[in-house]
Specification:
The structure is a homotetramer.
Chain A lengths: L1 E4 L5 H15 L2 E6 L4 E6 L7 H5 L4 E5 L19 E2 L5 E2 L3 E7 L6 H14 L3 E3 L17 H14 L3 E5 L13 E4 L7 H7 L6 E4 L6 H13 L5 E5 L17 H8 L4 E3 L1 H5 L2 H13 L4 E5 L17 H17 L3 E2 L7
Helix pairs in contact in A: 3-4, 3-10, 5-6, 9-10
């Protein structure tokens, strides 16, 4: 961490401030007296140093972090890719391209089982489906909740596909014991109490980037989960909020190579939520694969106009089949194979 | 709700689609056959109609909501201002300008008691202080938690000031029974499970706007609380995230008159979080009052450079005294008086 | 155009307003009297109707445009792709993938000639190079101006590559007579006086999207050029400004398929300006091709650390060779061939 | 300027790089060898140093500017407020609050003369009116152009009010010789060729902030004008583009105190363009004055629904009279008097 002091700071003030910094933060401070201003360098582990408190000091002109504030999710300290492998071919990362597919909301036993069969046949290695649904309006369908989780388990029993579903409150964790991957939605990316609880469970967590969160904040939220003991985190880019209104969100495609460089965690992309339009799912899925994503999460519905949520962005099973086949082809150019179930139904 | 259909839609398709809409949504549909396109108008309560599902229909070109999707927070149905009155002069709304002040984090018994005394003397009608702290980094100070709530109660006992403090999880509600106003932070504005729980308690809720949330979404989150039974919601504008980096967030000052027009709920502004710089608190507080805010929430710390959080944006008690006095003067021009405690210490 | 009137508008007011609309705008107005509100539909050419003036009417609740406001750039009226073909294999659109490459700034005769040779050999079909440079600071290098254009012509003479270079003022048009494609930079996308002048010249215009401009506004700026008589416009997505700071801009990859759907004009992507980092050029170029772009514009410099502008985002000739080869491979999956010069040096 | 080098950089590399920096930039470089990384400090005038080129160097981890890149607009070097005084009471800055008012577009001789008389009577010290109009659509009214300037001069002759009007191209400068203050619109804030030309004329320039431009970029554009010789620049905050759609733009009220702190130039606010709704003009004008603005620029139209542009955001003369009176009252609290014409009609 580099601290630039205001012009006119006396040597005595510098020494007093440096000693205070060393005492409070357990770091070593080096002062460099320039012609017009003095610069302090903090050495040691500065991840816990409060930049705000330093900026509040009247001697300080500006502060710059040199070390990244995330450690466990940082590729510098863990050069090898983390692979989330649930067996039988269902793996994310490590040269495989994984497709997670399914409806926005679980609606009925037949609906989820049929879609599960369809997406597995087309190349999905995981089944997604919402039981607890975060909706902007309290008057909109809120999900089947516990019953939805039950229906997901039925679908898994029929197809073998591991299930990925969203949690909205630590109080619901007890219901998620038989879920394979727990998803944290964009709106809860900085629900820190939830993240801490998820850090104590032994399941992979699919962590979606918040609508207004930076790439660094996404890594810091992964860090919350990892610092609590759970190393299996999957990062998900799903679009950020900008001034453009033609899409529901703006897919930040650059986040894919950046996250892959900064972190060892696998990165998946959600083209359905990023665009909000079913016809955009295919080109955005292609772009995500070409940019280096380890996987895709795609909303598929047998009857989009009658979907209980997110109909506009859901593709049909037929469209999904074409997209998955196309994804496999593009992934091949990048030396990746599709993650596919190898078990028998 | 107005639905524009694609050119070429047949009369039979229109009739079939209209009947489907009526059956599913309990509304009445009128079709208007134009020269080039057909427009449908939905009459009745459309707050629960899923715009997504309609957009997913292949006949639909675009959809436009005419009715606002929020009802209980809507001024159209409740023309009179809601006033949050906790007695002894501590009221928000109804021609009074209320100042909520205190440290970002509760740090010690003396710290919170001293600041409480200072801000009360200067004109604050409520004491704020964080016990549970949402921090971007898991390695940063997370608040004194239950102990912090205890210290807030001590400070209230000494000064009479009602306490406002943030909740981060429904699981903590049991600890908040003796809190006067529960705050929902920006990061939890769409933590819908938390909002539903808060809708069942009988305390006022101070609901902060999320960093990337629209004014309409803020009202929809208020609607979650109100639809669950709790009508006492205070809306708080605290800055949104934009490309500008000189301030921590961009205070959306227009949100103040817009919220006052659309809703009957009181509106307060947080100039401390909006700017992130203590020297900006005063001009932004003035602007908020001039734009019609019912109150302010200001971070005050006796020793900002040693604050355990948000030091850079905290003003000192002396600065606060000047700001409060100035606020009173400007409020006077707008016919408002400062909300002041009338009890004895 | 659909106009929703305020509740309580009388039939007489509706008729008077409708007559006024018809007289002023040369359209036909149909009124639809609903139970709670009245809706007007405007038929005919509404591209020139001023939505602002209508919103200013006290009877009006809201207005919604149904017809797109752009006509000449609209694919609805021109279903076939526009192809910009400069001969000898240098074409953009129509199943070919064109790479425009070269330095940010033209710096010397040797520099531009060497880079031109290098990029041609690696697969570029056009040479880019800035002579007039828009720089944030008046103290930064402003380009070689007229001399830079002269050096570009030398490089073209040696390699045959058509040249693409930016114009900053209508007053400079006289210097651009021998340029092959004139570029309008992001900062001038809404410099309407410049656009009108460019509409009168007979050269293709490469129009970059502004940092804060919507997709629709980009099409409206293309419309300015086309409405003045020049149909040869190339649209360029080069990143928009968002809150994310890890990249110089945020590449809006969704703009590619959307522009291809809404318009018949060719679409190129600039991964260099979008990211601001040379190491991101390759993954973003891959994503652009996979999303359906017709071309790429890439900054290449023989000695990036000593470039007079944009060094951080320039790739070396060796890196460019690898990227171009990779682009060709990915384009092949999408049935596209690389646009290549077929002439002799 | 502080440059952090990558870990592992050798002392020889550091020395070679430092020597190169000194030679190219005319600065002095100090190296500070830390335990894990080396930091370089550049001393001297770094305003012209190209941060991009430095970042392109493979030894560089990151760069931080310490000195502001703007000089002539910087308050550090010119502590006293710049006042734009056109005589007869029409002054901006220096303790006076100036109101610039008038229609979006000049439409006819009577229209502009009538509005001029009205706004002067209500307290405006300057008349605004657009002759050259930047419109998103080429099919919308483009202004009366030269004739509009002529009508503005008539209105000035009748009222004495100095005129403020927008220029869109350096080619039009010859027509602006008799204009009192030349306005640069938001879309042309980074039209650097125009700025340079305006730097050579001897008229005050009202420079509006671009929709996606930072505060620092606004100061850099002012610097362009000043570096070319014209010191009389007025800065104007008129809203930036964000995700919020209820307002046309988001007024960045914080920009007012920040610009006043960083620069000695006067700062005015345009509540009409910032909001896009006439009913928001008053509260935003109040907020601007309370935040410390030196002036306001307000759109006034005698018949907003029939205005040829910007009808929705124009107030009527009666509304303007109320706003101006209210502005005067609030300004008084801040010790400011309204700038008023003292001449006779």
């Amino acid at each position: 961490m580099i601290i630039v002091l205001k012009p006119g700071t006396s040597r005595e003030q510098v020494e007093h401030f440096s000693a205070d910094l060393e005492k409070r933060n357990g770091v070593k401070v080096n002062a460099w007296y320039g012609e017009h201003s003095t610069v302090l360098g903090l050495l040691g582990d500065t991840a816990g140093v409060d930049i705000e408190a330093i900026q509040a000091n009247e001697l300080v002109e500006s502060v710059k972090r040199v070390q990244e504030p995330y450690k466990k999710s940082n590729r510098k300290f863990h050069p090898d890719d983390t692979v989330i492998d649930l067996g039988h071919g269902s793996a994310i990362g490590g040269g495989r391209l994984a497709i997670i597919a399914g409806p926005c909301s679980v609606e009925s036993e037949d609906q989820i089982a049929d879609i599960a069969r369809e997406v597995k046949g087309a190349g999905a290695a995981f089944l997604r489906g919402g039981a607890f649904k975060p909706r902007t309006s309290p008057y909109a369908f809120q999900g089947l909740r516990a019953e939805g989780l039950e229906l997901l388990r039925h679908a898994r029993a029929k197809t073998g596909l591991p299930i990925v579903t969203e949690i909205m409150s630590p109080a619901h964790l007890i219901l998620f014991e038989d879920v394979d991957i727990i998803q944290v939605g964009a709106r809860n990316m900085q629900n820190f109490e939830l993240l801490k609880e998820l850090g104590k469970c032994d399941k992979p967590i699919l962590l979606k980037r918040g609508l207004a969160n930076t790439i660094e904040e996404l890594l810091m939220s992964a860090e919350y989960i990892m610092a609590s003991g759970n190393d299996r985190v999957i990062l998900c880019e799903r679009g950020i909020r900008t001034f453009e209104t033609m899409t529901r969100n703006t897919l930040d495609i650059s986040a894919v190579p950046i996250l892959k460089k900064l972190s060892h965690l696998p990165v998946v992309v959600d083209p359905s939520h990023a665009s909000g339009h079913s016809w955009l799912v295919e080109p955005l899925a292609m772009a995500a694969v070409a940019a280096g994503a380890d996987g895709l999460i795609i909303e598929v519905h047998n009857d989009p106009p009658h979907a209980l949520s997110d109909g506009a962005q859901s593709v049909t099973p037929d469209e999904f089949r074409r997209i998955a086949s196309h994804v496999e082809e593009v992934a091949g150019v990048f030396g990746k194979t599709l993650s596919r179930r190898d078990d028998q139904e």
